[in-house]
Amino acid sequence: MAVYTEVSVPQAQALIDQLGLGKVLSLQGIQGGIENTNYFVTTDSGEYVLTLFERLTAEQLPFYLQLTRHLAQRGIPAPAPYADASGHLLFTLQDKPAVVVDKLPGKSELEPGVAHCSQVGELLARMHLAAQDFTLHQPNLRGLHWWNATAPQVLPHLGTAQRAMLEDELAHQNALAASTAYGALPRSAVHADLFRDNVMFEHARLSGVFDFYFAGVDTWMFDLGVVLNDWCIDRQSGALEPLRASALLAAYQQKRPMLPVERRLLPDLLRAAALRFWISRLWDFYLPREAAMLVPHDPTHFERILQDRRRAPHAVSALLDAAH
Ligand SMILES: Nc1ncnc2c1ncn2[C@@H]1O[C@H](COP(=O)(O)OP(=O)(O)O)[C@@H](O)[C@H]1O
Ligand SMILES: N[C@@H](CCOP(=O)(O)O)C(=O)O
């Protein structure tokens, strides 16, 4: 269930008119999402997605919308928001901020193979290069600052061993962030949540990337860590699955060879990416937001991944060396 706010055809038509996108033929609520209200809108000019933002405010949205537009203009298959004659991207519908974007073709691949991971690696490198000249700035709002602020809220809910790991990893990440090597890592606005459910494939070809609402400026290796930790794991153990991970890394490096400092710090950034989603899932699980209609994701999944990345930090380095 993810139509929190009902929209009628005349209301949708009024917005579609402002954008010059034709006559609304059908309006269908999308059940998949958890944060926002989404509708598929079919008009006589094409297929679109209408989103009403339930959490983000009009002041927060320009960064995400402009980033998506910037990437789309550079050939990334991201759903660019439509502008009215004055160039406005953001509108108001039912008192909520609203946008209309292109409907991406295809569907998510929740059981990816080597060929899917290879395409995602290439896409990620292209996104990093394309974001280099994006001028708006917003930090990753789910970055180190947020982990430090949120950990004390979840720690009381954890057992002794979990607490020890969380505190130790947080100390490690704070020390890393203060290091000269970390300061030398390339960074830009990154997606920061490029999980399997945020990428589309059509006829086995990558056809779209969406849901940029956790984007922010962070290191490219953190973003790569997020992707490796979701697309290339053995679900049972949380370990990296070598074939998929090698394919993803090779495709990334084909487009954008990593610097020596990036290769050296990638194991730490895989840990950082695991910690980020362990904390957010613990937070959703133990401190659910009021009226949120989401079923919390399983935090133990990322606890296992973090354990694995700490236990075998050089697994990814071995894959990088083998590909060299
Ligand atoms: N631009 C788009 N093109 C095609 N489908 C989309 C698009 N945006 C969203 N969807 C569909 O809507 C679902 C929910 O979108 P999502 O951005 O994940 O919502 P939420 O932010 O509420 O979780 C997606 O799983 C996808 O099926
Ligand atoms: N990818 C995150 C959850 C973010 O939610 P999304 O549906 O907006 O991608 C996780 O798996 O914890």
From TrEMBL:
Pfam families: APH
Pathway note: Amino-acid biosynthesis; L-threonine biosynthesis; L-threonine from L-aspartate: step 4/5
Annotated EC: 2.7.1.39
Gene Ontology BP annotations: threonine biosynthetic process
Catalytic activity: L-homoserine + ATP = O-phospho-L-homoserine + ADP + H(+)
Enzyme class, spelled out: transferase
Signal peptide: none
InterPro entries according to UniProt: Aminoglycoside_PTrfase, Homoserine_kinase_II, Kinase-like_dom_sf, Pseudomonas-type_ThrB
Entry's Gene Ontology molecular function annotations: ATP binding; homoserine kinase activity
Domain Aminoglycoside phosphotransferase: 27-254
UniProt KW keywords: Amino-acid biosynthesis, ATP-binding, Kinase, Nucleotide-binding, Threonine biosynthesis, Transferase
Database matches in PANTHER family: AMINOGLYCOSIDE PHOSPHOTRANSFERASE DOMAIN-CONTAINING PROTEIN, AMINOGLYCOSIDE PHOSPHOTRANSFERASE DOMAIN-CONTAINING PROTEIN-RELATED
Protein family according to the UniProt entry: Belongs to the pseudomonas-type ThrB family.
Name used for this protein in its record: Homoserine kinase
Protein's organism: Lampropedia cohaerens
